Protein backbone atom coordinates (compact mmCIF):
# COMPACT_ATOMS: atom_id res chain seq x y z
CA UNK A 1 0.00 0.00 0.00
CA UNK A 2 2.84 2.39 0.89
CA UNK A 3 4.66 1.58 -2.34
CA UNK A 4 1.55 2.28 -4.46
CA UNK A 5 0.82 5.54 -2.61
CA UNK A 6 4.40 6.75 -3.11
CA UNK A 7 4.19 5.74 -6.76
CA UNK A 8 1.19 8.10 -7.04
CA UNK A 9 3.20 10.95 -5.43
CA UNK A 10 1.70 10.84 -1.93
CA UNK A 11 4.28 11.76 0.69
CA UNK A 12 4.20 9.03 3.35
CA UNK A 13 6.11 9.92 6.54
CA UNK A 14 4.06 8.24 9.27
CA UNK A 15 3.73 4.50 9.81
CA UNK A 16 1.31 2.72 12.11
CA UNK A 17 0.64 -0.31 14.27
CA UNK A 18 -2.62 -1.98 13.30
CA UNK A 19 -4.97 -4.78 14.31
CA UNK A 20 -7.10 -6.48 11.67
CA UNK A 21 -10.52 -7.68 12.82
CA UNK A 22 -12.97 -9.40 10.50
CA UNK A 23 -15.65 -12.06 10.21
CA UNK A 24 -15.52 -12.68 6.46
CA UNK A 25 -15.31 -16.42 5.59
CA UNK A 26 -12.56 -17.95 3.51
CA UNK A 27 -13.18 -16.93 -0.10
CA UNK A 28 -15.33 -15.18 -2.66
CA UNK A 29 -16.36 -12.19 -0.54
CA UNK A 30 -13.84 -9.50 -1.54
CA UNK A 31 -11.55 -9.82 1.47
CA UNK A 32 -8.42 -8.68 -0.36
CA UNK A 33 -10.18 -5.68 -1.93
CA UNK A 34 -11.57 -4.68 1.46
CA UNK A 35 -8.14 -4.95 3.10
CA UNK A 36 -6.45 -2.99 0.30
CA UNK A 37 -8.94 -0.12 0.47
CA UNK A 38 -8.81 0.06 4.26
CA UNK A 39 -5.00 0.10 4.26
CA UNK A 40 -4.91 2.92 1.72
CA UNK A 41 -7.47 5.02 3.64
CA UNK A 42 -5.68 4.40 6.95
CA UNK A 43 -2.23 5.33 5.66
CA UNK A 44 -3.59 8.44 3.95
CA UNK A 45 -5.42 9.49 7.12
CA UNK A 46 -2.37 9.21 9.43
CA UNK A 47 -0.37 11.20 6.89
CA UNK A 48 -2.86 14.07 6.83
CA UNK A 49 -4.55 13.43 3.49
CA UNK A 50 -8.30 14.07 3.28
CA UNK A 51 -11.01 14.10 0.59
CA UNK A 52 -9.07 12.02 -1.94
CA UNK A 53 -11.15 11.11 -5.01
CA UNK A 54 -12.86 7.78 -4.25
CA UNK A 55 -12.26 6.33 -7.70
CA UNK A 56 -8.53 7.07 -7.29
CA UNK A 57 -8.63 4.99 -4.08
CA UNK A 58 -10.30 2.21 -6.08
CA UNK A 59 -7.67 2.41 -8.82
CA UNK A 60 -4.80 2.23 -6.32
CA UNK A 61 -6.40 -0.71 -4.49
CA UNK A 62 -6.72 -2.57 -7.79
CA UNK A 63 -3.10 -1.71 -8.58
CA UNK A 64 -2.01 -3.21 -5.23
CA UNK A 65 -3.57 -6.55 -6.12
CA UNK A 66 -2.24 -6.62 -9.68
CA UNK A 67 1.32 -5.56 -8.84
CA UNK A 68 1.84 -7.18 -5.45
CA UNK A 69 -0.30 -10.36 -5.47
CA UNK A 70 -0.26 -10.68 -9.29
CA UNK A 71 -4.03 -11.11 -9.24
CA UNK A 72 -5.50 -9.81 -12.55
CA UNK A 73 -8.67 -8.50 -10.91
CA UNK A 74 -11.09 -5.90 -12.19
CA UNK A 75 -12.52 -3.03 -10.13
CA UNK A 76 -15.97 -4.38 -9.23
CA UNK A 77 -15.18 -5.47 -5.67
CA UNK A 78 -13.27 -2.29 -4.88
CA UNK A 79 -16.01 -0.06 -6.34
CA UNK A 80 -18.74 -1.75 -4.30
CA UNK A 81 -16.73 -1.48 -1.07
CA UNK A 82 -15.76 2.16 -1.60
CA UNK A 83 -19.05 3.44 -3.07
CA UNK A 84 -21.75 1.18 -1.56
CA UNK A 85 -24.54 2.97 0.33
CA UNK A 86 -27.03 1.47 2.77
CA UNK A 87 -30.55 1.38 1.35
CA UNK A 88 -29.44 1.62 -2.29
CA UNK A 89 -28.54 -0.69 -5.13
CA UNK A 90 -25.09 0.39 -6.35
CA UNK A 91 -24.47 0.24 -10.10
CA UNK A 92 -21.05 0.42 -11.71
CA UNK A 93 -20.69 0.98 -15.45
CA UNK A 94 -17.42 -0.48 -16.67
CA UNK A 95 -17.96 1.29 -19.99
CA UNK A 96 -17.69 4.86 -18.66
CA UNK A 97 -16.43 4.21 -15.10
CA UNK A 98 -19.47 5.87 -13.49
CA UNK A 99 -21.27 4.83 -10.30
CA UNK A 100 -25.00 5.40 -9.80
CA UNK A 101 -27.62 4.44 -7.21
CA UNK A 102 -31.14 3.08 -7.18
CA UNK A 103 -33.11 3.36 -3.95
CA UNK A 104 -34.28 0.02 -2.64
CA UNK A 105 -38.02 -0.56 -3.14
CA UNK A 106 -40.41 -0.33 -0.20
CA UNK A 107 -40.68 -4.10 0.15
CA UNK A 108 -36.91 -4.65 0.37
CA UNK A 109 -37.28 -5.23 4.13
CA UNK A 110 -38.96 -8.53 3.24
CA UNK A 111 -35.77 -10.08 1.84
CA UNK A 112 -32.24 -10.83 3.02
CA UNK A 113 -28.94 -11.95 1.55
CA UNK A 114 -27.54 -15.11 3.13
CA UNK A 115 -23.88 -16.08 2.81
CA UNK A 116 -23.14 -19.82 2.69
CA UNK A 117 -19.47 -20.59 3.32
CA UNK A 118 -18.33 -23.94 1.88
CA UNK A 119 -15.33 -24.06 4.22
CA UNK A 120 -12.93 -24.43 1.29
CA UNK A 121 -9.76 -22.37 1.13
CA UNK A 122 -8.48 -20.19 -1.67
CA UNK A 123 -5.38 -18.08 -1.47
CA UNK A 124 -6.20 -15.20 -3.80
CA UNK A 125 -7.12 -15.24 -7.49
CA UNK A 126 -3.57 -15.45 -8.85
CA UNK A 127 -3.49 -19.26 -9.03
CA UNK A 128 -7.11 -19.92 -9.98
CA UNK A 129 -9.20 -20.55 -13.09
CA UNK A 130 -10.19 -16.86 -12.94
CA UNK A 131 -6.80 -16.07 -14.51
CA UNK A 132 -7.42 -18.59 -17.30
CA UNK A 133 -10.92 -17.20 -17.97
CA UNK A 134 -9.51 -13.68 -18.26
CA UNK A 135 -6.95 -14.90 -20.80
CA UNK A 136 -9.66 -16.75 -22.76
CA UNK A 137 -11.77 -13.57 -22.95
CA UNK A 138 -8.73 -11.59 -24.10
CA UNK A 139 -8.08 -14.28 -26.70
CA UNK A 140 -11.55 -13.75 -28.18
CA UNK A 141 -10.76 -10.03 -28.52
CA UNK A 142 -7.32 -10.72 -30.02
CA UNK A 143 -8.59 -13.22 -32.62
CA UNK A 144 -11.96 -11.71 -33.58
CA UNK A 145 -11.99 -8.11 -32.33
CA UNK A 146 -10.67 -6.49 -35.51
CA UNK A 147 -12.96 -8.45 -37.84
CA UNK A 148 -16.10 -7.80 -35.76
CA UNK A 149 -15.11 -4.29 -34.59
CA UNK A 150 -14.97 -4.60 -30.79
CA UNK A 151 -12.20 -3.88 -28.30
CA UNK A 152 -13.71 -5.73 -25.34
CA UNK A 153 -16.56 -8.19 -24.86
CA UNK A 154 -18.76 -5.51 -23.31
CA UNK A 155 -19.07 -3.85 -26.74
CA UNK A 156 -20.61 -6.87 -28.50
CA UNK A 157 -24.11 -6.17 -29.86
CA UNK A 158 -26.86 -8.78 -30.42
CA UNK A 159 -26.20 -8.80 -34.17
CA UNK A 160 -22.44 -9.16 -33.66
CA UNK A 161 -22.93 -11.89 -31.08
CA UNK A 162 -24.91 -14.18 -33.38
CA UNK A 163 -22.31 -13.92 -36.17
CA UNK A 164 -19.36 -14.18 -33.78
CA UNK A 165 -20.76 -17.22 -31.97
CA UNK A 166 -21.02 -19.08 -35.30
CA UNK A 167 -17.51 -17.99 -36.30
CA UNK A 168 -15.67 -19.14 -33.15
CA UNK A 169 -14.25 -22.61 -33.67
CA UNK A 170 -13.04 -23.27 -30.13
CA UNK A 171 -15.63 -24.75 -27.75
CA UNK A 172 -14.13 -23.15 -24.64
CA UNK A 173 -14.10 -19.66 -26.22
CA UNK A 174 -17.68 -20.03 -27.44
CA UNK A 175 -18.79 -20.98 -23.93
CA UNK A 176 -16.97 -18.05 -22.33
CA UNK A 177 -18.50 -15.63 -24.83
CA UNK A 178 -21.95 -17.10 -24.17
CA UNK A 179 -21.68 -16.48 -20.44
CA UNK A 180 -20.31 -12.93 -20.76
CA UNK A 181 -22.90 -11.87 -23.33
CA UNK A 182 -25.91 -13.45 -21.61
CA UNK A 183 -24.81 -12.19 -18.20
CA UNK A 184 -24.60 -8.65 -19.58
CA UNK A 185 -28.09 -9.09 -21.06
CA UNK A 186 -29.48 -10.22 -17.69
CA UNK A 187 -28.27 -7.12 -15.85
CA UNK A 188 -30.84 -4.54 -17.09
CA UNK A 189 -33.63 -7.07 -16.49
CA UNK A 190 -32.43 -7.62 -12.93
CA UNK A 191 -32.24 -3.87 -12.30
CA UNK A 192 -35.82 -3.36 -13.49
CA UNK A 193 -37.12 -6.24 -11.37
CA UNK A 194 -35.24 -4.84 -8.36
CA UNK A 195 -36.74 -1.37 -8.89
CA UNK A 196 -40.26 -2.80 -8.87
CA UNK A 197 -39.60 -5.08 -5.91
CA UNK A 198 -40.13 -8.25 -7.95
CA UNK A 199 -37.55 -10.24 -5.99
CA UNK A 200 -38.80 -13.60 -7.23
CA UNK A 201 -37.69 -12.61 -10.75
CA UNK A 202 -34.41 -11.24 -9.37
CA UNK A 203 -33.85 -14.65 -7.76
CA UNK A 204 -34.64 -16.49 -11.00
CA UNK A 205 -31.98 -14.42 -12.79
CA UNK A 206 -29.49 -15.17 -9.99
CA UNK A 207 -30.15 -18.87 -10.53
CA UNK A 208 -29.69 -18.54 -14.29
CA UNK A 209 -26.42 -16.71 -13.82
CA UNK A 210 -25.19 -19.34 -11.37
CA UNK A 211 -26.06 -22.17 -13.76
CA UNK A 212 -24.28 -20.41 -16.61
CA UNK A 213 -21.24 -19.79 -14.40
CA UNK A 214 -21.17 -23.56 -13.90
CA UNK A 215 -21.95 -24.74 -17.44
CA UNK A 216 -20.59 -22.01 -19.73
CA UNK A 217 -17.92 -20.19 -17.72
CA UNK A 218 -16.84 -23.37 -15.93
CA UNK A 219 -16.09 -21.68 -12.61
CA UNK A 220 -18.06 -23.80 -10.18
CA UNK A 221 -16.99 -26.82 -8.16
CA UNK A 222 -18.32 -29.79 -6.22
CA UNK A 223 -18.56 -27.96 -2.89
CA UNK A 224 -20.16 -24.85 -4.39
CA UNK A 225 -22.77 -26.84 -6.31
CA UNK A 226 -23.52 -29.01 -3.27
CA UNK A 227 -24.10 -25.89 -1.19
CA UNK A 228 -26.32 -24.37 -3.88
CA UNK A 229 -28.46 -27.53 -3.99
CA UNK A 230 -28.96 -27.23 -0.23
CA UNK A 231 -29.85 -23.53 -0.49
CA UNK A 232 -32.34 -23.98 -3.32
CA UNK A 233 -34.13 -26.71 -1.32
CA UNK A 234 -35.29 -23.98 1.09
CA UNK A 235 -38.65 -22.68 -0.16
CA UNK A 236 -37.75 -19.20 1.13
CA UNK A 237 -34.66 -18.98 -1.10
CA UNK A 238 -35.55 -17.06 -4.27
CA UNK A 239 -32.22 -17.56 -6.02
CA UNK A 240 -28.59 -18.45 -5.36
CA UNK A 241 -25.21 -18.44 -7.09
CA UNK A 242 -21.53 -18.77 -6.33
CA UNK A 243 -19.61 -15.67 -5.32
CA UNK A 244 -16.15 -14.47 -6.27
CA UNK A 245 -13.65 -16.12 -8.59
CA UNK A 246 -15.18 -19.56 -8.37
CA UNK A 247 -14.18 -23.20 -7.74
CA UNK A 248 -14.08 -22.69 -3.96
CA UNK A 249 -15.28 -20.11 -1.44
CA UNK A 250 -18.81 -18.96 -0.72
CA UNK A 251 -22.29 -18.88 -2.21
CA UNK A 252 -24.84 -16.10 -1.84
CA UNK A 253 -28.61 -16.58 -1.64
CA UNK A 254 -31.47 -14.09 -1.98
CA UNK A 255 -34.09 -15.15 0.54
CA UNK A 256 -37.45 -14.14 1.97
CA UNK A 257 -36.88 -13.14 5.59
CA UNK A 258 -37.84 -16.07 7.79
CA UNK A 259 -36.24 -18.10 10.58
CA UNK A 260 -33.02 -19.72 9.35
CA UNK A 261 -33.45 -23.03 11.20
CA UNK A 262 -34.63 -25.00 8.15
CA UNK A 263 -31.83 -23.69 5.91
CA UNK A 264 -29.23 -24.32 8.62
CA UNK A 265 -30.50 -27.88 8.98
CA UNK A 266 -30.30 -28.38 5.20
CA UNK A 267 -26.69 -27.25 5.20
CA UNK A 268 -25.70 -29.24 8.30
CA UNK A 269 -27.27 -32.48 7.08
CA UNK A 270 -27.00 -32.12 3.28
CA UNK A 271 -23.69 -30.35 2.84
Q: How would you characterize the overall build of this protein?
A:
The protein has 271 residues and is mainly α. The chain is built from ten helices and five strands; from the N terminus they run ααααβββαααααββα. It has helices at residues 2-7, 31-46, 54-69, 76-83, 129-148, 158-167, 171-195, 199-215, 222-232, 261-270; strands at 88-93, 98-103, 111-117, 237-242, 250-256. The strands form two sheets. Strands 3-5-4 form a three-stranded antiparallel sheet. The chain has a two-stranded antiparallel ribbon with strand order 1-2. A hairpin with a 4-residue loop joins strand 1 and strand 2. Helix 2 (31-46) crosses helix 3 (54-69). The longest helix has 25 residues, at 171-195. The protein is globular, with a radius of gyration of 20 Å. It starts with a helix and ends with a helix. The relative contact order is 0.13. The mean pLDDT is 93.
Task: Quickly describe the structure.
This protein has 271 residues and is mainly alpha-helical.
Describe the protein's topology.
Layout: H1 2-7, H2 31-46, H3 54-69, H4 76-83, E1 88-93, E2 98-103, E3 111-117, H5 129-148, H6 158-167, H7 171-195, H8 199-215, H9 222-232, E4 237-242, E5 250-256, H10 261-270
Antiparallel strand pairs: 1-2, 3-5, 4-5
Rounded to the nearest angstrom, the radius of gyration is 20 Å
The description of the largest β-sheet is: 3 strands, antiparallel
Q: What is the SS-derived class?
A: mainly alpha
Provide the spatial order of strands within the biggest beta sheet.
3-5-4
- How many DSSP helices? 10
Taking the alpha carbons of the first and last residues, their distance comes to 39 Å
> Averaging pLDDT over every residue, what do you get?
93
Number of DSSP strands? Answer: 5
Listing every helix as H and every strand as E from the N terminus to the C terminus, the arrangement reads: HHHHEEEHHHHHEEH
Helix share of residues?
40-55%
Residue windows where pLDDT falls under 50 for at least 5 positions: none
Q: Bin the strand percentage.
A: 5-15%
Task: Sum up the overall morphology in one term.
Answer: globular
Amino acid sequence: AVYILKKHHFEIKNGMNGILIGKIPEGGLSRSASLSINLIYSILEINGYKNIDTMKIVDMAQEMEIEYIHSPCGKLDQVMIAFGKAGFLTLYSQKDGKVSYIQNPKNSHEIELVILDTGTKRHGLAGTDYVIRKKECEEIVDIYGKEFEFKNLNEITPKTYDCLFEEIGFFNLRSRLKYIYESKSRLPLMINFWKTGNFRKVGELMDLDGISLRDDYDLSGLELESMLICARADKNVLGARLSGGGRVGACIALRKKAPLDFLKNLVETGY
